[in-house]
Each structure stands twice: as structure tokens, then as C-alpha cells.
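Q: My labmate handed me this sequence with no annotations at all. I'd like to see what the chain might look like in three dimensions before we decide whether it's worth expressing. Could you predict it?
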Amino acid sequence: MNKRVKKTVSSIFIGAMIFFISSLAWAQGSLEGRRQVVLEGKAALVSVDTAGGSIVDFHLSGQNLNPLTWNYPDKGDLKPRTIGHFICFDRWGQPSQQELKNGMPFHGEVAQVEWQVLSQPVKKAGAVDAVMVCRLPIGGLELKRFLSLSDASPVLT
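A: Here is what I predict for the chain of 157 residues:
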């Protein structure tokens, strides 16, 4: 192999390894096997379920108290659903009769779809940041979520 081909192959291999290792880092916390984005700072840890986008864990470092422990799914249930702290979007509350006929769920579609991780958690400028997005098939909308956990204090924005 010439040097250019070796360099390209090496770059592809290194890129694949970085993707694999970084995907393991954000897929760590698991709620009954459900994939989660985990932001961990010095003061707190936050986990967001990718199946529905709910914040399922927020606890202070060194403590196990998680106030977001309601409506956990049964073991093996990986479908998107409302768990912990969820977003009501593209609507809030009961859908109209026509919306219900068209498949619109209570509190909208956001907690009923799979979220994609656009930017895995990265520490920078005193915070751990990540970006997620979901697309809503009935409403035709897209919601992008920018998460930022302060490294020094238990504050999530």
C-alpha cells in the first residue's frame, strides 16, 4: 500500500474507533436496557432517555437520590414513552377528537418518538454539553434540544 492509502485507512479506522468509544461513553447509564445520553459534571449527573427524550435521572455527585423515578418501563420495554421529566410538545393535554383519530397522543408526539444524538456530551468551558433532535411525523415539526450541565454546580440548562 502506498502512504496515501495507508493514511486514509488509518484515518477511517481511528475515526471509527473514536465513534465507537465515544458512543460507549454517552450510552453508559441504562434504565432497564434503554439507551441514554449521560452528562456528568463534578457536581451532578443527568441522564436523558433517547426513546422519548425524557430526563430520567438528575442527582448530585456522591448521592443516589434521583427525584425523577416515576413511570419506569417494565424490563425489556424499549418503546418511547413518558418517564421522569418529559417535554409536552407539539401540544399540551388531551388532543381533539379529530387529532385523536389522526393518532396524536396526549401531550403531543415528542415523548413518543426516538431522539437522535447530534452531539455527544463534551466537556468545554466549564460545562458538559450535548445536542439531541427529534422529528414529529404527525405535526411535521422538529425539536432540537441543547443540554448544558454546569461542571461546578448542579445546574442543567
